[in-house]
User: Fold this.
Amino acid sequence: MQEAFNLINNSSHIVFASHVNPDADTLGSALGLMHAFKTMGKKLTLYNQGELPKTLDFMPGFELITDVFPKDADLVVALDCGDIKRLGLGAGAYKIVNIDHHASNPLYGDENIVMPKAASTASVVVDFLRYCQIRPSAESATCLYAALASDTGFFKYESTNEKAFLDAAYLCECGAKAADVARLMTQRESLSKIKLLSKILATLELAAGGKMAYVYMTKQMLDETGAKQDEADGAVEMARSIDGVEVGLFLRELDGGHIRGSLRSKSYIDVNSLAALFGGGGHVRAAGFTIKNELLFADAAKKIADTIETHILKG
Ligand SMILES: [Mn+2]
Assistant:
């Protein structure tokens, strides 16, 4: 950490870089760290290549994020990025400080602060700021708290360890408002998304003696609600969330006659092997597949659900 702090002290223009398709952890960690170093009299740039999620626009400093990489940067601090290609850095003579919590991080920085056990990159930033004896301002704490809350699913995921709560308590002590962050991150859904989810949920069916719940989305549902594809995200988790259900299945009709399937399980069925029935894969609790479909969508959906049900019943 000392070497990383030295690099920061000795640089004049620092770029805080977050990965493409940014989530709250990468942006909140970058913004949180930037706020903490604001008073050092250095030039600071927040860099992200590509589109930013509007849902995170409440983070102080969000409006400062640019997709123009500064030519005179002499230090890049990369946050929450396990693959240097996902930063989209421009050319220049700069060193890199790599701050992350992905176990797969290949340590591409000149200095690397990578803690695979940390619940979020924000937790690593908290440790680093403590080491530097910098207390986060309220602005900084708000960004870091949002990052930590998001990566732990608001303290629900398996990554939620004792340190996650200790960091959360410290960030609240520094001025983060937990209820405000939760409201701004989770209570600003678009009307089109809710209308789309109501159509998707209307297709709900139980199978495999109540162990499986499946829902589907046609292209027509998108047209009728004006919602975007990614607004259907969350449908499979809703199906899985029913009491007694172990496997959630969500089928969406894609362009060109394709069907995309998403599978989630709660605790004992390996959905990776269910997805493999259709040439897909993923993880034990979350997997997916894409198939070419020659049938009517509703008929194809029924067939896929029946095949999965048969496999679950075979156990
Ligand atoms: Mn993260």
